[in-house]
TrEMBL record:
It comes from Medicago truncatula (Barrel medic). One of its GO terms (biological process) is cell wall organization. GO terms for molecular function: polygalacturonase activity. The keyword Cell wall biogenesis/degradation applies. This is Putative polygalacturonase.
Amino acid sequence: MKGGSGSASNIKFQNIEMDNVTNPIIINQNYCDKKKKPCKKMDSAVQISNVLYQNITGKSASDVAVKFDCSEKFPCKEIKMQNILLICEEGEPAKALCNNVQLSYIGNVNPRCNSQKYTN
């Protein structure tokens, strides 16, 4: 299996001010170096769970400030977002893209995922 296997859990990102950061909040189990084409579908064997994003504010250099692109086989579980406020550099609302993730929100969280496509 490409990319190895294992787990990443009990991780905290707290009290962070973002300034001109591309994808300030991101978990990407389907990463592909766009310089190496064509990109093949990745089969991650890493289970990501119990991750807390807390008190994170600031400006995103990209339209997508929150990106959770988790594996279908090993979806991200118990991802918590608490008191998040991220906007685009121009002051416009930022976006969130989420696939195969189990999310919970505490307090004010912006942006939020519209759909999480979580099936487990």
